[in-house]
Amino acid sequence: MASNLLSRSVHDLSAAAWFGGSLMGAVGLNGAAAAAKDPKERTRLSTIGWAKWTPVQTGAFVAHTVGGVGLLFGNKARLAKQKGAGATTVTKTALTLVGMGLTAYTGVLGAKVGKLAEQGGEGVTEPRAGASEELKKAQKQLKVLQWAVPVVSGAVIVLGAQQGEQQRPSNLVEGIFNRR
Asked: Model-level pTM?
C-alpha cells in the first residue's frame, strides 16, 4: 500500500485548523469581544477578528478537500473491498459538506452583524434591548452556530480517526474477509 502521508497530513491538519479556529473564536475571540465596555465595540471587534480568520479558514477548506481527494485515490481499492470503509467515508464526506455549509453561513451572519455593529450588543451573540430584528435574529443564530461548527468539525476529526483505525492490519483483514 502506497504511503498517504502527505494527503493525510494536509487533510488532518486542515481539519484541526477548522476545529481549533472555530472553538477558539467562540470561546476566546467572542469571549474577549464581549468584555468590551462599549456595546458597539463588542460586535465590531468580533466581526473584525472573524474576518481576519476567514482567509485561513477558506484555505483550510481547500486543503482539506485536496487532502481528502488524495486519500480517496490512495485508498480506492480498500474502500471498495473493506466492510464499513465506504460507509464511513460517505458519512464523513456528508458531515464535512454540512459543516462547511454551516461555517459559510456563520460568515454570512457575521457579515450581517458587522454591518449592524453600530447597534451593539449585550455580548457578541446576545442582542441588546432596542436592537433591530435583523440584528437580533443574526445574533441568535450565531449563538447556536458558534457551537455547532466545532461539534461538526470535531466529528469529522473523529471519523478520520475511525478511518485510520480501519487501516490497522487486523481490521483490514477482518473487513476484507468478513465483507457481506
From this structure: 0.88
